[in-house]
Design brief:
Number of domains of chain B: 2
Structural class of chain A: mainly alpha
CATH topology of the largest domain in chain B: D-Maltodextrin-Binding Protein, domain 2
CATH superfamily of chain A: MetI-like
CATH class of the largest domain in chain B: Alpha Beta
Radius of gyration of chain A: 27 Å
Helix content of chain A: over 70%
CATH architecture of the largest domain in chain B: 3-Layer(aba) Sandwich
Number of strands of chain B: 13
CATH topology of chain A: MetI-like fold
Distance between the termini of chain A: 51 Å
Oligomer: heterodimer
Number of helices of chain B: 19
CATH architecture of chain A: Orthogonal Bundle
Radius of gyration of chain B: 26 Å
CATH class of chain A: Mainly Alpha
Number of helices of chain A: 13
Shape of chain A: globular
Helix content of chain B: 40-55%
Number of domains of chain A: 1
CATH superfamily of the largest domain in chain B: Periplasmic binding protein-like II
Order of helices and strands of chain A: HHHHHHHHHHHHH
Chain lengths: ~300, ~475
């Protein structure tokens, strides 16, 4: 028995490479071989541009001029951080992120909660709700632009048939921001819904059964069973959405072009203008790096909170 | 021994992987620095003896609008009679992306177009960055410059910028006219009468009366969008009409010039007298929206670029009549009214040869430009829907009879005024666009908006970069 067990092990240890396989190509090298194309792509498309942008952010380089970059230290960073224009865009972005993600969270969770309570047609309903998320933001922006048109749009037509007046959705300061929030909410509520639904489905049924035996109220079950168990997952969804909304560009570009004036210009939109209207590449790079830093720092705090929540 | 080897292995491999990554990044960095060598020459040759007989595709870049398709059709039909081996392709992008599409390629020192159709204000940026060929000598040798209104030749090619109505013979030329353009006033003859208003104040009064008498029809329709140069051109036009100036070019002074008394008067007229006569929600209107309002009979008076007005006479796109004649019974086209001064906005574009395309294609592009400026070709271009720049073509029946608004252009030529043709143009126009748009949509006090324009634009001219 012993010899029978030992023999294959010894054979495996000393077995020669399979025919056609290079003698020096061990498992690790094979793994490296398989991973390296993806790694090279990552280096070329993500790591290198980031490092290059970091380098440019310390220079006065302009992509449009045929002049070598000169080192300017932290001047570009100081300029971005002390700019009143940047502060204004940061506030706009904050309002947008809080408004859009807040609304999406409430709606997404509510829809997921309602769907989770249904036993029939849940799959069909979920699929239907997911459709907006699968569309390109440019397409979404274009058709919402038509729908929100003051003169010919279907939204105002509907309001008119209800006896309400015309609303200038895209050309007034407050309604333009509201329109952006609504459009983003329309498209991305399904994302929150999907993750919340996954969380709700994973809540063990026996907890509800125990609560039912104790004759716990609906609110009690929601407050002390459902919400605490879904909360961490929901927070992860909120983080993803907040990061996405923070770098929002396409919907703003199509829907309001940052207007009226610059009242819906987000940070990303402003970086685009600095980079491509003035070709102020050094400043735009510093601006972009600072945006990345803000996201990383906030995400770190957020993740620590999530970890604490998990440990608790 | 085996364990010792095993423990060193991963560390060595990690170092190797790290070294490989660093090497990759360094090589990518070197690649990103690109080929810093200067192009062989930035000056166009004056002789075009070495044209190739091999198949050539001459690529233009322009924005999406009817003249772009008209140019491609016209050039492929006519130029190929002289050069059968050449195919013309006019690539188009949305208007809002036009500048970026050209200048990001220029920035990469590699263009997939041979001829950039630049707005007059783009020339400064392109020349300063050596993106286009200097064609001064080529023009001297190949083009009959006396056949042009001097300002038209200067506006689409000269740098430094020409003063209104003049051409500096000593300045270099970087392009030749492709399409002339200016604003036309479109008015409803059936609603305000056959005779167009002669002054700006009369025009506003006529629009108000028309709006009051015709519910559902707004008095005015004009460009107000914060994209492209829409709202800025509108303000600049009213500024010119009320005797204002955009800047003092010699001193590069904007503060105190654009926002002088005349400038504030113009902003007040635009925001407080003209805006209330426009349709609700028209604060983001540009070319298409103004055309739609006119074609659907929703505006008494509108202002539009001539080159974008052709569709208004198409019965398939209009509710004003079932034939072109029926539409023309209702629509009139006139030069802009004057008030304290007599300016109209310079529109249109020139052809400019990319410094980064191959020599064979540069020669072909220059040959095309030489061919295009011939008197007979200019007349044919006029008949095909283009707006020529040669004086003989402008006064030819082929041009004047081709469309009712062509006579408007011919009459407007002596009144044309341009904006700033400087490398900082893109930033200057964005500042003006966003602030005028804000004033038009109630997001900013008009006086405050104009002062902000002056302050920000002056800051851009003085620092040539940076944020506020």
């Amino acid at each position: 028995m012993t010899s029978t067990l030992e023999t294959p092990e010894q054979e495996a240890t000393v077995s020669p490479p399979a025919p056609g396989r290079l003698s020096r190509l061990g498992d690790r090298w094979l793994a490296i071989g398989f991973i390296s194309p993806a790694m090279l792509l990552l280096l070329a498309m993500s790591v290198f541009p980031l490092l290059w942008a970091l380098y440019l952010s310390f220079t006065d380089y302009s992509a449009a001029r045929d002049v070598p970059a000169s080192f300017v230290g932290f001047d570009n960073y100081a300029e971005v951080l002390t700019s009143s224009q940047v502060r204004q865009r940061a506030l706009t972005t904050l309002i947008y992120v809080v408004g859009a993600v807040g609304l999406q969270t409430v709606l997404g969770f509510s829809i997921a909660y309602l769907i989770s309570r249904r036993t029939r047609g849940r799959g069909a309903l979920t699929t239907m709700f997911l459709v907006p998320m699968m569309l390109s933001p440019i397409v979404v922006g274009l058709f919402w632009r038509f729908m929100l048109d003051t003169q010919f749009g279907v939204v105002n037509s509907l309001l008119g048939s209800l006896g309400l007046g015309q609303v200038e959705w895209l050309t007034q300061q407050r309604t333009a921001m509201l329109s952006l929030v609504v459009v983003d909410t329309w498209q991305w509520t399904p994302f929150i819904m999907l993750i919340a639904l996954a969380g709700l489905t994973a809540v063990p049924k026996y907890l509800y059964e125990a609560a039912a035996i104790d004759r716990a109220s609906e609110w009690f079950r929601f407050r002390y069973i459902t919400l605490p168990l879904v909360w961490p997952l929901l927070l992860i969804a909120v983080m993803f959405r907040a990061i996405e909304a923070f770098r929002q560009f396409d919907t703003v570009y199509i829907l309001t072009n940052g207007g009226p004036g610059v009242s819906t210009e987000t940070l990303s939109f402003h970086v685009y203008k600095v980079a491509f209207l003035g070709f102020d590449t050094g400043t735009a790079s510093a601006y972009g790096i600072l945006m990345v830093l803000v996201v990383i720092v906030l995400a770190q705090f957020y993740l620590r909170y999530l970890n604490k929540l998990k440990e608790g | 021994m085996r364990f010792a080897n095993r423990s060193r292995g991963p560390a060595r491999r990690a170092r190797l992987a790290g070294a490989t990554a660093v090497a990759m990044l360094v090589s990518l960095g070197l690649a990103a620095c690109g080929d810093d060598s200067e192009p062989a020459s930035k000056e166009a040759p004056s002789e075009l003896d070495d044209l190739t007989d091999d198949p050539v595709t001459l690529n233009f870049i322009w924005f999406e609008w009817p003249p772009a398709q008209a140019l491609e059709d016209f050039a492929n039909a006519e130029y190929t009679k002289e050069r059968p081996n050449v195919t013309i392709k006019v690539d188009t992008v949305p208007n809002a992306n036009w500048h970026d599409a050209m200048f990001t390629q220029f920035a990469a020192r590699q263009t997939d177009f041979d001829i950039a159709v630049l707005d007059s204000q783009h020339i400064g940026e392109a020349v300063t960055n050596d993106n286009i060929l200097d064609i001064t000598e080529f023009v001297e040798e190949n083009i009959d410059t006396d056949a042009y209104d001097p300002y038209l030749l200067a506006a689409y090619g000269q740098y430094p910028q020409a003063e209104t109505g003049q051409r500096d013979e000593d300045a270099s030329l970087y392009g030749l006219p492709l399409l002339g353009d200016t604003w036309t006033m479109i008015y409803r003859k059936d609603l305000i009468g056959e005779e167009p208003p002669k002054t700006w104040d009369e025009m506003i009064a006529a629009a108000k009366t028309c709006q009051d008498e015709n519910p559902g029809v707004s008095g005015l329709a004009f460009h107000q969008s914060n994209g492209s140069d829409a709202a800025a051109v509108t303000y600049n036009t009213v500024n010119g009409v009320y005797g204002g100036n955009l800047w003092e070019s010699k001193d590069r002074k904007i503060e105190g010039v654009i926002n002088d008394e005349a400038g504030h008067k113009a902003m007040d007229v635009l925001v407080n007298q003209m805006k209330p006569l426009t349709a609700k929600g028209s604060g983001n209107w540009f070319i298409d929206e103004v055309n739609a309002a006119v074609a659907q009979g929703k505006a008494c008076i509108a202002f539009q670029w001539i080159a974008a007005s052709g569709g208004l006479l198409d019965p398939a796109q209009s509710t004003l009549g079932k034939t072109r004649e029926e539409i023309l019974d209702k629509l009139g086209f006139a030069t802009l009214p004057s008030q304290d001064a007599d300016f109209v906005p310079l529109g249109g574009m020139g052809m400019h040869v990319s410094a980064y395309t191959s020599e064979a294609e540069q020669l072909e592009a220059l040959n095309f430009m030489r061919w295009f400026q011939q008197p007979e070709v200019q007349k044919k271009w006029a008949a095909a829907g283009g707006v020529p720049s040669r004086t003989d073509a402008l006064q030819s029946p082929e041009f004047l009879d081709a469309a009712p608004f062509n006579v408007v252009y011919a009459e407007s030529v002596p009144r044309l005024r341009d904006m700033w043709n400087v490398p900082e143009y893109a930033r200057l126009i964005d500042i003006e666009n966003t602030n005028v748009n804000a004033a038009l949509n109630g997001a900013k006090d008009p006086r405050e908006a104009l002062d902000e324009i002056a302050r920000q634009q002056q800051s851009v001219l003085e620092s040539s970069g940076g944020l506020d």
